[in-house]
Write a structure and sequence with these properties.
Elements: E1 7-14, H1 18-29, H2 31-36, E2 39-47, E3 51-55, H3 65-76, E4 90-94, H4 97-111, E5 116-119, H5 127-135, E6 139-142, H6 152-158, E7 165-166, H7 177-186, E8 191-197, H8 200-210, H9 215-224, H10 233-236, H11 239-251, E9 261-263, H12 278-285, H13 290-302, E10 305-314, E11 317-326, E12 338-345, E13 353-358, H14 362-375
Parallel strand pairs: 1-2, 1-5, 5-6, 6-7, 9-11
Antiparallel strand pairs: 2-3, 3-4, 8-10, 8-12, 10-11, 12-13
The structure holds NADPH dihydro-nicotinamide-adenine-dinucleotide phosphate and the ligand N[C@@H](CC=O)C(=O)O.
The ligand N[C@@H](CC=O)C(=O)O binds next to helix 8.
Cofactor: a metal cation
EC number: 1.1.1.3
Protein name: Homoserine dehydrogenase
Amino acid sequence: MPTPVKSVLPVVLLGCGGVGRYLLRHIVSCRPLHANQGVAIRVVGVADSSSLLVAEDVHSTGLDDALLTQLCAAKSAGSPLSSLLGRGHCQLFKNPEARGKVIDAATTLGRTTGLVLVDCSATYDTVSLLKDAVDHGCCVVLANKKPLTGAYEDFQKLVSNFRRIRFESTVGAGLPVIASVTRIIASGDPITRIVGSLSGTLGYVMSELEDGKKFSEVVKTAKSLGYTEPDPRDDLGGMDVARKALILARLLGQQISMESINVESLYPSELGPDAVSTKDFLESGLVQLDKSMEERIRAASSRGNVLRYVCEIESAGCQVGLKELPKDSALGRLRGSDNVVEIYSRCYQSSPLVIQGAGAGNDTTAAGVLADIIDLQDLFQTMA
Ligand SMILES: NC(=O)C1=CN([C@@H]2O[C@H](COP(=O)(O)OP(=O)(O)OC[C@H]3O[C@@H](n4cnc5c(N)ncnc54)[C@H](OP(=O)(O)O)[C@@H]3O)[C@@H](O)[C@H]2O)C=CC1
Ligand SMILES: N[C@@H](CC=O)C(=O)O
């Protein structure tokens, strides 16, 4: 006998790049698993930077799986969402109308069936949409760190109903870092320190450099493997790790902003986004850093050490930057895109809670986002 459907979760996805497309593929391929659990995800809309593709009647139907599969193929091939018009029961809205349509869906579905607004973009532009959605009683799931790392008031607003927001993938991709921190806090066990290697890109880059590869080459490979941010300077400049540190520090109750975090950049300001385009940085900027990075790695190695980009969060302050560490230390042993996080608290004082594993990549990140969506199912119960 088929399992009765207990929860239907309508979803609007913002962003169908590397992570967003993997999410859609996971949603489609997990249909039988979710059906067995009595859960169904109904994707009612998908937006990119210029338009929104939305089901004809968001109250009763979603975009069908054939269309979602075609959407992933079209976006992978660089075609716009508008190329999908006429292939299913859907409508297309271009910006700025698209934004209004997302709010319409949030308003009507927030009041009736509920809605999960999923942000897999990499922009600050979604913040006001997300805040509106929260006001309309919608749930929010984030892979995008930016909405939680802008103004402190925005962070407060988004997490104001903690039962309705999930953002596990913002720190450590699919690793259960946020969940672990949240559980420790909830138990009244004060967290005193979090230290770790929280960049899949920089972890990968540093361990590949130890094998004698060129900085410029390994950064490009990290990008092709889906580890980097859309502009890899977000990773190389430490900002992506600083955002993760800020999310964790704010979770611990620190009312701080990005300016309070000491951030070490691996590229000079002459190669920054204000001076050089991403394309030029990748094509001709990166090679300028090869020699100095090689020298830093060689100097550390001559002392039996390795370089790791380390994130430290304490009540006294937060800092992110390169550290020379013994090869056989927990961080020194890290290879590839793995992250490791050590959490110290009263209960985990001399023996910290350690979380380690793949910390970047479209597949694992999207899996974390999907698990977050499914985690909200109890708020979407359709039967007693
Ligand atoms: N890759 C990883 O390992 C991890 C990534 N993340 C986070 O996941 C997010 C997505 O990363 P990734 O998929 O690699 O990024 P991509 O650049 O591949 O995709 C970003 C998507 O967002 C869309 N977009 C841009 N602006 C808007 C907007 N205003 N509204 C709706 N959509 C918009 C883009 O549209 P268009 O297609 O038109 O350009 C694109 O489809 C990032 O925030 C990243 O930090 C988090 C953890 C790990
Ligand atoms: N660019 C990030 C992706 C996950 O947040 C990283 O390299 O860790």
